[in-house]
Amino acid sequence: MGVATATVRAVNGLTARWAGASEDGTVFSAAGVWPLLAHLADGAEGAARAELAEALGLPAGRAAAAARELLAAMGAVRGLDAALGLWTERTLELRQEWKAGLPADAHGVLTGDSVADHRALDAWTAKRTGGLIDRMPVTLTEDTQMVLASALTMRTRWLNPFHEMELETAYEPWATKPRLGLGRSSTVLDRVGVAATPAGHVTQLKVLGSNALDVHLLLGEEGVRPGHVLGAGVDILAGRCAVVPGPRLPYGNVGPGLRVQKVRCTRPEPPSLHVKTVAYDVNASHDLLKLHQLFGLTAAQDTSRGHFPGISDFPLAIGSAQQNTTARFDALGFEAAAVSAYGAVGAGIPDLRYVTTRISAAFDRPFGFLALHRHTRLVLAAGWVTDPLPAPEYDWDDDWDDDR
Questions:
Q1: pLDDT tens sequence across 150-165
Q2: What is the pTM of this model?
Q3: CA separation (Å) from 383 to 44, 75, 306?
């Protein structure tokens, strides 16, 4: 993915700040919001422009070009689809310079019929997310002059799939009913590690996808806020917190949910990593204006004047800003989608003679995840798991596949 390091840093910075303001059981995509903020900043002036630039983490004058590069780079990755759409009232005249910075096929028309317009916006949403999201998160009113939206979809298959099982956990909220657990064994120990972060120790597990799209699972110490754990995950990606990988871990309980031990076995065996986690399906809707300071949208909401003369001579202000997001993690892979939209208004006893090392990683209580592009470390979606999928009602095969 050919995207500048500064842009990755800026998007991931917004991810970390958003995580700090997030609650339990959520999923969100700063990578879906960031290009929209960038194009808005390109056409803004005054306080709105300054606030948007601060939220972006890049100067407003560089933002639109960075957004175009980011969208093009994401669209070129197998398993990743990114799109931008613009719809305007027929009478709204856009500045050619700003419009030229958008994809050639991005511009549609708002008819003024809210039912028909929403139907068209929803159809675009469903098409661009492959049906993962079916409704555009925007509020249309008689004053709506423009809708600027993005769609981001990620799909990957695990290099080594998991084995489904019924989850065994001491975490009571999850133990009250059968949950769909996932397990696998591997001899690749460096997929797991522990980092000392400002939020305490965090266990990181890398689940690799077949197309360089990965998911990192993050388990913090008990009682640590979700936003702090997810923020620590972003710090780990940026190299601000060093990770001690599996092969270098000492024996004992070395991190949250992580244990390294010597075990006896009947034959010579290489060291192994045994992972236990859960399948999940998380959905969330976000009103970005409730976090207007985070997204640089405070001044831009003021409808007493226009804030985007670089977009149109017609005075425009932000009337709504929302995101719908979904993420699913199962035995075979991961998929996530985000649609963001801004509306402008106006183990007998065997002979155990051999010894080996076994690492056990258990994500069996609430944890965070970052879905990202492996090579650039751009975070595409982030979330916190509080309600795993229920276990189906059938007999389980307790034998795990050995994913070597």
A1: 999 999 999 999 999 9
A2: 0.92
A3: 31, 22, 35
